[in-house]
Amino acid sequence: MDQTKQEPYVSYLEHKGKYTGIRSWIFTLDHKRIGLLYMYAIMVLFFVGAIMGLLMRIELLKPGETIMKPQTYNGLFTVHGIIMIFMVVIPGLSVVFGNFFLPILIGAKDVAFPKLNRFSWWVYIAGCILAILSQFLKNGPPDTGWSFYAPYSTTTGTNVIMATFAAFVLGFSSILTGLNFIVTIHQMRAPGMKFMNMPLFSWAIYATAWTQLLATPIVGITLLMLIAERLFGIGFFNPNLGGDPVLFQHLFWIYSHPAVYIMILPALGVITEIIPTFCQKKIYGYKAIAFSSLAIAGVGFLVWGHHMFTSGMSNQARWFFSLLTFLVAVPSAIKVFNWLATMYKGSIDLKPPFLYALSFIFLFTIGGTTGLLLGSVATNVQVHDTAFVVAHFHYIIFGGMGFAFFGAIHYWLPKMYGRMYNFKRATIAWAIIFVGFNLLYFPQFILGIEGVPRRYFDYLPQFQPLEVISSVGGFILITGLIMMVYNLVQGARKGEIAPANPWHGSTLEWQIPSPPSLENFDEAPVVKSNPYDYE
Amino acid sequence: MTEKATHIEAHADDEAKKLGMWLFIFTELLLFGGLFLVYSVFRAKYPANFHEGSLELSVTIGAINTIVLLVSSMTIAMSLTAIQKNNRKLAMTLISVTLFLATVFLFNKVFEWGAKFEHGLYPGSKLMPMLERGDLLYFSLYFFMTGLHALHIIVGMVLLTICLFKVKSGNVNSKKYIHLENGALYWHLVDLIWIFLFPLLYLIT
Q: Which of A351, A395, A417, B49 is deepest in the core (most CB within 10 A)?
């Protein structure tokens, strides 16, 4: 292309479009700005959810009533779950970093449907507003747990309709985002960017998007049936009216187990980007990692029954669900082995993003192996609905997806804002978060094995020492989180100007200026080979 | 390379929109798929009640509606061919015929539902909870499935009305007809779902 035709470089943050001021954000079509908007919303909601979690930990400092009534506690764990699951981790990495980096990684100017992207963002906000409203309307916050199990959810007097409708709306936003990403990957790749030349984060987003697209409608229709049941008493799930509560559990988990992979697949993708960069080494087993994402998404559809081993199910069904659950661990383990093989003989650089990636592998492995304990029928019956389950999924969701999210921010922040944060403070914050996290959740494994049920606001006196350790861990964790966010905000606003490629990364986002210009690339990049070429 | 890049950009748009619509259709199919699952579970649990329930429905009205929808699917496909052949007027007539047939379908539905309402047979009525459990579930499913389908008919009609105006203003023409193509795709989906609903609710006894 002719050099004279090129426009002067203006970053997407300073670009002057049709709108100015706040409206240039609300009405933006730029995938990068939309990604940032999601990130701000998710960080705020994450802290709201975290404070609710902290309140629960304070309540559990001693047996009996400490600071709240049982009903308040029921509301808290439900709302904590709804916020964290539907508004923070399910959209999470995919809407923030998928939006911001997917088009750049495949050499595109934007997603396939920018207007649809903006629409999904608005729908997401509408869903968040509905969900938050459901906490404050006069009947009180829903008290069913985030899983809305029937028949209790069909009869409780709290704001279940509003909360389930909010989940429906958020699901709609999730479907549209997934649809947009699939089309983007199929249609918008730069010349030469074959599927097998895509960075592995794009593969992860691709697998995630299919799961979003195909699983979410099931929970959509289930929630609509639940709403109709409450409004008209039509009895699909209420045994008094001939319905079947176990059917609700099936339908719910047909979505909500794949939803776990909606959360974790992009996280695996981020880790796969961070590791080769900080080892300066070509990723080991590109194809195995790419296809294991698809395998996780595929097999993930068929394992939902392991949530229901104690709900009434034939033995044969339990064997199959158990077998398939073990099977889904295989592709996850393939990824872990590939990461380790990538690190072998690499020039490892222990910068903050890599520290998060390392701790991710550690925590994800603990979460994964305890997941197998839950996936085998006999042990599941022992620890079902205990604190063990709580510890397990926090290790996966927070230790996995959460740590990957923090790692991704530390990795890509210099690209997003063109500035760098303080490494020393970031490392200290990481250490505090890591210690606090393990103190908070590890005791819950032991409590669970000793039989402490989840979702109880009270416990027997002999469990107090472990409960106190757990609560102390909660305070340490939140201290680290505040420090981390402070450091990141400082870095984004006043940090040193970052070079375009501070980590010597090889993927496309590092080949353009920081922050990127509105159209990302002056001319469509031409890709010839594998993205991880370190020589 | 530059040539290839512009080539890709020019074609990405329509191809992408069509792919997007197909993906959206997948989600719609799974939305109804969830309902079909619930239907099969309860049908297996209460076969006798489902047998009685289906006898209450008028196969004649159902069959008329099936024919109406099938013909409307044909007319919308014909309108797409017409616009591809640059016959704007015919295309507009055919979209209008499709919209008319959709209205006939809804009119029939109102008639059918109205008769049930007169007998006090509707979700939330006093009569419903007094029915046998299987009958209650059959009619709940009947109203839920046909209601959700009717909602999709209305959405489809809105889409086709927008297409009609786009053809009129020349925004949809013989070179650029992706909007009408997507509208037609969606309309075929609505038709397809009915083709499942009709035997499930009316024919299998």
A: A395
Residue-number span of the structural domain to which A187 is assigned: 24-511
CATH classification at residue B169: 1.20.120.80
Q: Is the peptide bond before A191 cis (omega within 30 degrees of 0)?
A: no
Q: How far apart are CA A367 and CA A394, in angstroms?
A: 8
With respect to residue A499, please indicate whether it lies within any of the assigned structural domains: yes
User: A1 in a domain, yes or no?
Assistant: no
ipTM more than 0.85? Answer: yes
Inside any domain, residue B7:
no
Whether A218 contacts chain B with CB within 8 A: yes
Closest-CA distance, B117 to chain A, in angstroms, reads 14
- Interface touch A228/B4, C-beta < 8 Å: no
Nearest to B136 among A113, A221, A241 (CB): A241
Taking the Cβ of residue A182 and every Cβ of chain B, the question of whether any pair is shorter than 8 Å is answered with yes
User: Which residues form the domain of B151?
Assistant: 28-203
d(CA A96, CA A42): 9
One-letter amino acid of A449? I
Judge contact between A476 and A439, C-beta under 8 A.
yes
| pLDDT per residue of chain A (535 residues) written in tens, 0 to 9 | 344 455 678 888 888 777 888 888 989 999 999 999 999 999 999 999 999 999 999 999 999 999 999 999 999 999 999 999 999 999 999 999 999 999 999 999 999 999 999 999 999 999 999 999 988 888 889 999 999 998 899 988 899 999 999 999 999 999 999 999 999 999 999 988 999 999 999 999 999 999 999 999 999 999 999 999 999 888 899 888 889 999 999 999 999 999 999 999 999 999 999 999 999 999 999 999 999 999 999 999 999 999 999 998 999 999 999 999 999 999 999 999 999 999 999 999 999 999 999 999 999 999 999 999 999 999 999 999 999 999 999 999 999 999 999 999 999 999 999 999 999 999 999 999 999 999 999 999 999 999 999 999 999 999 999 999 999 999 999 999 999 999 999 999 999 999 999 999 999 999 999 899 988 998 888 887 788 888 6
**Does A242 sit within 8 Å of B137, measured CB to CB?**
yes
In-domain check, residue A518: no
A307 belongs to a structural domain: yes
The CATH number of whichever domain residue A170 belongs to comes to: 1.20.210.10
CA distance B156 to chain A (A): 18
Please tell me the total count of domains within chain A: 1
Dump the DSSP string for A474-529: HHHHHHHHHHHHHHHHHHHHHSEEPPS-TT---SGGGGS-SSPBTTS-SS-----S
